[in-house]
Write a structure and sequence with these properties.
There is one protein chain. This protein is α/β, with parallel strands linked by helices. The chain has a domain of 79 residues. 31% of the residues lie in helices and 10% in strands.
Length: 124
């Protein structure tokens, strides 16, 4: 695996970098990230959001936060993952090869954004 280059700040520049980690079972992770994105957008920042395992992207998608986020400027959405809602409304649990392939696709998108994206905030 190749390393991501780290570019040191110019002399006199004060970098303001931070990493927020929201993890665990249950609700709240996406809500925290969306709140952070809205705050950044309100401050005039550009945002990129890569969603893992939330890939269904269509007329009847199940992730309502994307309906409003698509209407905002300066945010780029990258949903990855396979459809998990079955026709009967139940949820498909477990991991199949398609899920692993989609996770790899999401990581490739994230790497491109880390190395060369123009966003001020990257949410994975």
């Amino acid at each position: 695996m190749s390393e991501i280059p780290v570019i040191p700040p110019e002399k006199g520049d004060t970098p303001h970098h931070s990493v927020h980690v929201y993890y665990g079972y249950g609700k709240g992770k996406t809500t925290c990230c969306i709140g952070l994105a809205i705050r950044a957008l309100g401050a005039g920042k550009r945002v990129a959001l890569v969603q893992f395992d939330k890939g269904y992207d269509g007329e009847h998608e199940h992730y309502s936060e994307r309906h409003i986020l698509r209407k905002l400027e300066d945010i780029d959405l990258y949903p990855t993952g396979c459809e998990r809602m079955k026709d009967d409304g139940s949820f498909r649990f477990g991991v199949e090869q398609q899920d692993l392939d989609e996770a790899k696709r999401g990581l490739k998108i994230a790497k491109k954004l880390i190395i060369g994206g123009d966003q001020d905030l990257l949410i994975l």
